[in-house]
Each structure stands twice: as C-alpha cells, then as structure tokens.
Amino acid sequence: MGIRLMLADDHRMLREGLRRSMTDQGFDVVGEARDGDEAIHLAEDLQPEVILMDVTMPEVDGVEATRQIKERFSDIKIVMLTMHADREVLAAAIRAGASGYLVKDCSTQEIADAVRMAASGETALSPQLAASMLAEVRKLDQPSRDEDRVITKREEEVLQLIANGCSTGEVAEQLYISQKTVKNHLASIYQKLDARDRTQAVLQAVRMGIIHLD
User: Fold this and answer.
1) Residue 13 half-sphere exposure, CB side, CA atoms within 13 Å?
2) Which of 78, 83, 209, 211 has a C-alpha 20 to 30 A away from that of 131?
3) Helix 198-207, helix 179-193: angle, nearest 10
C-alpha cells in the first residue's frame, strides 16, 4: 500500500490532475478537500500520512488549515503548494508546521519526491523558494546571545546539504557516512541551534551565517 495522501485545493481540475498523477506515482489518494475548512475535517476523518495543501483557498486558507491540523494531529505531514514564491507566505507556512514548500509549476516528480520526503520526516524545499527563504531570514531580528552557538564543521556540511534539498540518504552518500550518523549529527544540530526540525535548523543557521542558500 502506498503513502496515504490527501489533496486540498479549490480548483477541481487541479485536484483531478493531481489525483491522477499521484496515483500513477504509487500513492493512495484517500480524499480531496475543496477548501481549508473541509481539509481540517477530512484530515480528522481520513487520517492521511501527508496532505498536499494549496495556500490560497476560500474561507480558511491553506496556512491556517495547516496550523489547525498540526495542532490536533502532529503526525500528519503537510506539503504546501503555492502559485508564487512569496517569502511572507513561506514564513507563515513554516510557523504553521508545514513539511514542504513547492510552487505549482514544479514537475510531478518533484511533487512526488516532496511527498515521500515529508512522509519520512524530512523537509522538501523547492529551489524556487530558496531565495525567498533567504530574504525572509534576513528580515528576522538578530539572534540573541544564547543563540550564539557553534556547530562542528561536519555538522555544518550536513546542514548545508539539507539546505540544498538533499535527503538523509543523499547526505550520507555525499559525505561517505551512514544514515544513522547523519541522523545523529542532525540531533546534535537541533540541540545546539535550539531547533525542533530541519526547517528551523536551516533558518537559524542561515540567520547566524553558518550556512547559505543559493
């Protein structure tokens, strides 16, 4: 059985296209929501592993729906789909707890990869959004003294590859280390940067000048 996937988008044709393409990719598409409010209710009823969530929807938008779903069902992963690489929307999605961020002109394979990464607990960052993330980070306040912590050179290499969009397996392959070692490095990074996940760690490290986003 494939990953249980739910779709949330107010455009019927897009939902139908996503259903066909994601089914072809081997996902089990368990339901479709027409707006954010319906997405919240269906998430409770269907308990999908991952939701592909449009940002702009009537009534309750995708960011607010994501926030409410993550508050109630923290295990559900949500990948946001947006028409534009808007840094303010991206920052709001990060705060809401989204696990992936894609623009809608990305390929079916990119969407499928993002869903798989989200399901495995990884963060998928669309290349088109990297510049927006960097711009948003630069707007943030300067880090306080207690955030001024240093990570090791190897941890810096791991986090830079994560920021570049690599999965745990890809990081392990490029650095010639095991996936378990990668996960151990990430756990250490989270502690040192006071981050709860990869996205927060990347944001914090960019803000501190440890890594960069191209």
Assistant:
1) 0
2) 78
3) 60
> What's at 64, amino acid-wise?
E
Indicate if the alpha-carbon torsion angle 157, 161, 167, 171 is positive or negative: negative
Residues in the chain: 214
Sorted by where each starts, the structural domains of the chain and their CATH numbers stand as 4-126 (3.40.50.2300), 140-207 (1.10.10.10)
* Cβ–Cβ under 8 Å, residues 69 and 78: yes
Beta bridge partners of 53: 8, 80
pLDDT in tens, 74-95: 999 999 988 866 667 777 887 8
Encoded tokens for 67: 């926030």
Dump pLDDT digits (tens) for 126-157: 665 655 554 454 454 444 444 444 689 899 99
In 3D space, the residue among 133, 155, 142 whose CA is nearest the CA of residue 213 turns out to be: 133
What is the tally of helices (H) and strands (E) in the chain?
Answer: 10, 6
- Calculate the CA 136 to chain-centre distance: 16
CA pair distance 42, 24, nearest whole angstrom: 23
| pTM of the entire predicted model | 0.65
Beta bridge mates, 51: 6, 78
